[in-house]
Amino acid sequence: MQYSAPETIESALKLLESDDDARVMAGGTDLIVQMTSGMRSPSHVVDIKRIPELCGVVQTADGGWKIGAAVPGAELNEHVELKRDWPGFVEATDLIGSMQVQGRATPVGNLCNASPAGDAVPGMVAAGATVTVAGSNGFRDVAAHDVPAAPGRTNLEKNEFVIAVNLPPKPPNSGDAYLRFIPRTEMDIAVVGTGVFLAFGESGHVREARIALGAIAPTVVFCTEAADALIGSRLEEEAIEAAVLAARNACNPIDDKRGTAEFRVHTVGVLIKRSIAIATQRAKRQVGMD
Amino acid sequence: MSKMHITTSINGDTTEFLAEADQTLLSALRDNLRLTGTKEGCGSGDCGACSVRVDGRVVCSCLMLAPEAQDRAIETIEGMADGDNLHPVQRRFLEEAALQCGFCTPGFLIAARDLLDRNPNPTETEIRFWLAGNLCRCTGYDKIVRAVQKAAEDVRG
């Protein structure tokens, strides 16, 4: 195996083009485990942590955020302004592994590892994230939920890699939340995860909503049906029940050692309600509503 | 396969070693540099026995490739005591009997010192969360938490 740590996006792309079996590494907390367990044996590991523009969190001119693909969870968790805008996304990322893992693991790596249970993924999808992809034809932005193709596989073209996750400017009177179910209290893999984003209009109705479901299908589910059930409502019980029903209908889970399909479908509804409550509380706290 | 020549800082000393590209930092520390205070437990980032600090962040050295150490500052358990003077965390682990077999102890000490460097007055909950990535199969953790609390008092002075 070869190891390279290029210092520019261009040289990283050249290395990927030069070796069909090369693999990009950010934090390495999935890749290195896959390598040592014999699941993957890339002929070339291209470490992107020495590319300066991939190592920072910057606020964009429109008030959104650009998070470099090499930024680990610990750094996001220490970023006061980012956490104030998108606490659900930051908390989702922070749920991954221990403090040691947080020192290395990145949300972009979580997305590109394409596990159905990655916690950062529903968090970023609910936040409305896109990712910037670098390739030989230049750069393109892709919705985060379009990146995973199947467990362990992405829709990225050959020799492309993600250089940043982009979060939109946070609208006024809005909030996001992510919750997951695990059988333990800490350090486990999601059996179900739900990300919710809500923005309220001046009169208190839901103006904008996004709902993302994790670990209940081969890839993250961006559930517009559930979000549509909330938009225009004032979160009356019927609206929430309609969103729960839509989310449960969107599930396509498996039975595995972590939980049965039936349990997962049930739990999606429970967690959606709780996530809606947290997102609402966060949105209303900002304007002193209620 | 040709080896890579790595120059890094370990406990403040510039150190050079030759590593295979796919070797972990843990393996390089133990097998190449004979710094065997850092332990291999699970080898998959779950147990924390191989914790070291890299550029100010605690990581599992089994989840880092040795060539990544180039130009980084690595801190291992061997650099924690100042000669014969133990770090307060080390002294309190002894006094509070926070270890039995001792295999997990270097990792716990690295993690606990990092916590106290960041927050010399952690709550019990904060201590338990911070150390959740370090597994101990002997003590049941209570003595470890008490040792960190006492060390925190020492650090605060």
Q: What can you see in these coordinates?
A:
The complex is a heterodimer of chains A (290) and B (157). Chain A is of the alpha+beta class. Among the domains of chain A are: 48 residues, 2-Layer Sandwich (Uridine Diphospho-n-acetylenolpyruvylglucosamine Reductase, domain 2), CATH 3.30.43; 112 residues, CO dehydrogenase flavoprotein, C-terminal domain (Enolase-like, domain 1, 2-Layer Sandwich), CATH 3.30.390. Chain A is 34% helix and 24% strand. Chain A contains eleven helices and 14 strands. Chain A has a five-stranded antiparallel β-sheet with strand order 4-5-10-6-7, covered by helices on one side. Chain B is of the alpha+beta class. Chain B folds into two domains: 76 residues, Ubiquitin-like (UB roll); 69 residues, DNA polymerase, domain 1 (Orthogonal Bundle), CATH 1.10.150. Helices cover 33% and strands 16% of the residues of chain B. Chain B contains five helices and five strands, in the order ββαβββαααα. Chain B has a five-stranded mixed β-sheet, sandwiched between helices. In chain B, β3 and β4 form a beta hairpin. In chain B, α2 packs across α5. Chain B is globular and about 50 Å long. The interface between A and B is medium-sized, with 26 and 30 residues.
Topology:
The complex is a heterodimer of chains A (290) and B (157).
Chain A: E1 2-4, H1 9-18, E2 22-25, H2 31-36, E3 44-47, E4 57-59, E5 65-68, H3 73-77, H4 80-85, H5 87-94, H6 99-102, H7 107-113, H8 120-126, E6 130-135, E7 138-143, E8 148-150, E9 153-154, E10 161-167, E11 174-181, E12 192-200, E13 206-214, E14 221-222, H9 224-230, H10 237-249, H11 261-287
Parallel strand pairs in A: 1-3, 2-3
Antiparallel strand pairs in A: 4-5, 5-10, 6-7, 6-10, 8-9, 11-12, 12-13, 13-14
Helix pairs in contact in A: 5-8, 9-10, 10-11
Chain B: E1 4-10, E2 13-19, H1 25-32, E3 51-54, E4 57-60, E5 73-75, H2 88-95, H3 105-118, H4 124-130, H5 142-156
Parallel strand pairs in B: 1-5
Antiparallel strand pairs in B: 1-2, 3-4, 3-5
